[in-house]
Task: structure prediction
Amino acid sequence: MARNELNTREKRAMAAISTDAGNMLIVAADQRNGMKAVMTDGPDGAVTFEELAAAKADLVRYLGNEASAILLDPEVALPAIPDNGVLSRDTALVVGMDASGFEEVDGLRFTRFVPGVTPQTVLDLGGDVAKMLWYMRSDRQDAASRVGQEIKELVSACEAAGLLLIVEILAYRLDGESEEEYAAKLPELVAGATRVSVECGAKVLKLQYPGSAEACAAVTTAAEGVPWAVLSAGVDHTTFIGQVRTAVANGASGAMAGRSLWKDSLSVNHDVRADLLTNRAVPRLRELQDAVDRVK
Result:
């Protein structure tokens, strides 16, 4: 039996964010500063709140509604997108609870909640599922650490609210650590973070690609039956498709893709954006679904 079994309500939510074949497929569009940076008609900071909100609405309209689920933020995208009828009734809504950026304490990174956002807020925004991001160095943090306690607390709060929580974990390079040293440690950092998160009660995980088929299999073992999806982490689409195929072949349960789908399909200009999302991003989504569902 898998650790941290889903209850009936959570199983229904899991089905809502999955393909017909039962694999997770979520378009990530909760980025704020990162999304501004790829709206190529202007540099980060030159995009207004209204322009960013319009881009998010178009991303849902022309791309997200083609997926099982869309991940959106409660600062720019919500509640306007569901309130204005942009979100398809057939596309599940995942609400990101994490604020942009992080604080650093003793060389470790800690994310913050969007102010005032709780599991009840997610439900009030029409969310089917919640998502929270934590940074973790599993070589320095365990279930008894601050990050472990935060995961436990939110898992319990979401369970009490009847809400499925996706726990997203990001490893990162420490100050003074070379890129080569970090790359060598990454497979165990991801597997270690998986073990810690499962120990803290996580029922669904969103994780970095750990680097190889062997590393993916190790993550699956560490997950003890808890489903995990691989995130795109800003790599190009072709690279991500290969990563997803490897991850799924070695136990992953799906993918959550953001920039790999849409980073070169956004524009401040609505007409250009609509064309690129329809004719560039949607075909990528179809290819990603084939990879998730192991269609050859």
Summary: The mean pLDDT is 95. Residues 8-292 form a domain with the TIM Barrel fold (CATH 3.20.20.70).
